[in-house]
## 1
Amino acid sequence: MPFAYVFLAMSRKWAIIADDFTGAGDSAVQFVSCGKPVFLLIDRYSDGITFQKHETVVINTDTRFLDGKDAYRKVASATRMLYELGYRAFFKKIDSTLRGNIAEEIAAVMDAGGFRFVIVAPAAPRNRRTVINGVCLIDGVPLTDTSIGRDPFNPVNIGRISEFLQIRFPGAVEELFLSDIRSGSSLLRSKIEDGLARGIRVFIADAETMEDLKIISNMQTMPGILFAGSSGLAEAIADGKKCSTAVRHDFPRKAVLFVIGSLTEKTIRQCNRLLEVETVEELVVDTSRALNDPSDEITRIMEHLNSLQRNCPLLLRTDHILRGRNGSAIDKNVGLQISQFMGSLARVIAQECSIKLIIASGGDTAARIIETLDTDCIRFVDEIIPGIPYGYFKSNALGRKIYYVSKSGGFGDEDAMVECLRIVSPLMKTLGRSKNEIF
């Protein structure tokens, strides 16, 4: 395959490759244009006709928890397919907290797409994720000292980005500090060109503000460039394209289902806050029973649900026993089984309770819900709040449209779930008039 030395600013067709569902959504929504949603294709790599119809497409390779070699092969295959369909402008979505097979997946896109070099900028300033002196920070605290660093499924014990990438690109990694970024586009370009002349292929960029990321995005006219970053860099690259459509839907509260698969401390606080300030029915999954006899646990949950006199949102979450002892990591296969169970249970509840809107937290759980509801693609149309995308799809399993919000477990303030609910289902409207309901 020839090297992809093209001017990205002149290309209208963007391809985004993410390793998990929520990451795909929060970056894809940055490329939404007026009246033109961005399409997340669900495991339909061979459906070239569907891809070719759209200016911007997204693939979730679902590779965050795979072995590095398997992740490389899957990402490389997706890249080759997109390249053959005419896409030249690529954005490799990586986690802002460095979870997943970052080095292997960046290498896969570079190799399969023939990219000369990559700028890696995982900062997401609107979500208080920054990179200073090559180190990832959350709220100004080094990543490794936060709850994300102790993630029960995918703990991160390295905060310096170069340490992830040096193994895959030995001697070819260089850091770009804030002083380099803020010297301006011309001087930054010169520094990158100097590095390329010395054999550098990976440039790791500091960023503290959206203005920093915008300067980095100005490098998109350099030939042979690949961008790798989180929603912050995606927003900077897509600047000028996005035209907010605003979430105008007014859902009946009893038609809203929260499905929480994330075990982060932040998500637990968000759930507790939702229960504290809103009238919500909580359904707690017994994880031991779900693992040993999933059918029996679904029956138990549904019997409890049917006994309720319900006219409010549902909150479905686990009992958190899976958090592990003494902060130890949880077996990923166990986590996958629980995610699959949550997806299956969400489908049953959506069917029985005429759910119209699902708000999912946790990338693997969000993906498994989509899998069990069976759809070809999701149309992302906006963000409810920064980092939390909103869209809709036709569920082949239910035979109707479902609206969908997906949130990464570590994103959002303590009131994030409360705010989402109040935006999509304002309490005053549900208590009063119903003429503006969309269903």
Note: The longest strand covers residues 377-385.
## 2
Amino acid sequence: MKTILYSLLAATMMVGCNNSTATKGFDSVDATRFAEVIENEQVLIIDTRTPAEFSEGHIPGAVNIDIDGEEFEAMVAKLDKSRPVAVYCRGGRRSKEAAEHMVSCGLEVTELMDGILSWEGELEK
């Protein structure tokens, strides 16, 4: 019986990306450092807020992948793992959750620690 339970547990953990959150695995940085990171053209900028929040103003070049959207995990799984990712939300909670998931999928992630509320740079609508 234990063997069956362990097998089911292992299979569950292997579905999608590795859901382990034992270690953070990403850099959480302030707005100044985040701006430096996204200067690299290889960095994919991801806004994890809702589409409505995104349309109110986002960091130029950002792609909206709503962490609460039905397609979040599928969209993250399709991201190019050879490109670093810079992720943010409104205040930092959702982007930290998204960053943990992205790291479990094999992505290199930098997260804007206090979200777009701390951003002093240009916004695009």
Note: Strands lie at 27-29, 44-47, 63-64, 85-88, 109-112.
